[in-house]
Design a protein that fits this description.
Blueprint: E1 15-19, E2 25-27, E3 34-36, E4 40-48, E5 51-59, E6 78-82, E7 85-89, E8 95-99, E9 107-112, E10 120-124, E11 127-131, E12 137-141, E13 149-154, E14 162-166, E15 169-173, E16 179-183, E17 191-196
Antiparallel strand pairs: 1-4, 2-3, 4-5, 6-7, 7-8, 8-9, 10-11, 11-12, 12-13, 14-15, 15-16, 16-17
């Protein structure tokens, strides 16, 4: 009556979900999230108090097929996508920026020479974070993908082979160096703030 809106997706608000065939459509951990299973037709009933809404669901499998290809220098170890651009960690080839706005005709529009072999890349906002083996972590400014440029580098305790980015921290799998945590609150001056050594004992 006062024009306010209430999110009734959560079960905590009294909403209930039911599938007519869980083999066809089932539910995820998040309320309101559904997943397709086997091929077929089913329905999802959403109930709230005395209201029922039935949503028909059809699940069909398909075989993915490539529609284009691309050649570049180096070896493709990993990719990440941001908007219409694909970023490739290409080993000794550095990091390639690919304009994929035309999916049938992707094009390498820029390459950044990394400080060592690029083996993993994650793009968050205006920055690409690249694991570069023995040289640690490269941070590349991709605010203008066509003119991406090296911003900074920080050495890691071991050889950086994989990474994840969350909340202004980069978590680097640094081989024998364990897991290293790097603050990128200031991307131009990254700081190592934590190191966790992982020991695996023989059975």
């Amino acid at each position: 009556l006062d024009g306010s809106e209430i999110d009734i997706t959560n079960k905590s608000n009294g909403t209930d979900y039911e599938s007519s065939d869980l083999a066809v459509v089932s539910f995820g951990l998040m309320d309101g999230q559904i997943f397709g299973g086997g091929n077929g037709n089913a329905s999802v009933t959403v109930s709230l108090f005395d209201l029922d809404f039935v949503v028909p669901v059809t699940v069909e499998s398909f075989q993915p097929a490539g529609i284009s290809s691309l050649t570049f220098t180096g070896t493709g170890y990993d990719t990440d996508v941001s908007g219409d651009f694909v970023y490739i960690a290409a080993g000794s080839g550095g990091m390639h920026v690919v304009d994929a706005s035309d999916k049938l005709n992707p094009e390498v529009i820029h390459t950044v020479a990394t400080t060592a072999s690029a083996v993993d890349v994650k793009v968050v906002g205006n920055y690409a974070y690249v694991a570069v083996g023995v040289s640690g972590l490269d941070i590349i400014d991709v605010s203008n993908p066509a003119e991406a440029s090296m911003l900074s580098n920080i050495a890691t305790d071991g050889s950086a082979v994989d990474l994840a980015v969350q909340n202004n921290y980069v978590y680097v799998a640094a081989s024998s160096g364990g897991l290293e945590i790097i603050s990128v609150n200031e991307p131009a001056t990254p700081i190592s703030v934590g190191l966790s050594l992982i020991h695996i004992s023989e059975p």
